[in-house]
Model the fold of this input.
Amino acid sequence: MTPRPLHPAVRAAALAAALAGCAGAASQPARHDISIQAFVYQPAREPVHPGDTLVFVNHDAVPHTATAADGTWDTGEIPANATRTVVVRDKGIGAYKCAFHPTMKAALTPAE
Ligand SMILES: [Cu+2]
Done:
């Protein structure tokens, strides 16, 4: 079975629905790559919108986590050389840390 091209009206409706879902946000959901290397999140401060996706990549030889200080999100354990993804919500924008290494701290900041 071959996929049928979407009718333009269907595409327009899907786009309108996607835009309405943004609830006034000016931009589409974005992806933010945050690397962990030598016990440091890079970048340490990342501007984000609710709905954006965070992709954490652990380049260290030991496991880490990225855990929101307010407890609203948590990657869980990110093994060495592994990747974990979380979606940003309103409440989770703020400080986060590694559950295993209290000195590892970073933050999500509200994007303009
Ligand atoms: Cu850690």
